[in-house]
Amino acid sequence: MLILFDNGTPRGLARLFPGHSVEEARARGWEELANGELIDAAEQAGFDVMVTTDKNIRYQQNLTTRRIALVVLEHSQWPMVKLVAEKILAAVNAALPGSYVEVDVPFKEQGPKSI
Question: How far is it, in rounded angstroms, from Cα 6 to Cα 50?
Answer without folding.
Answer: 7
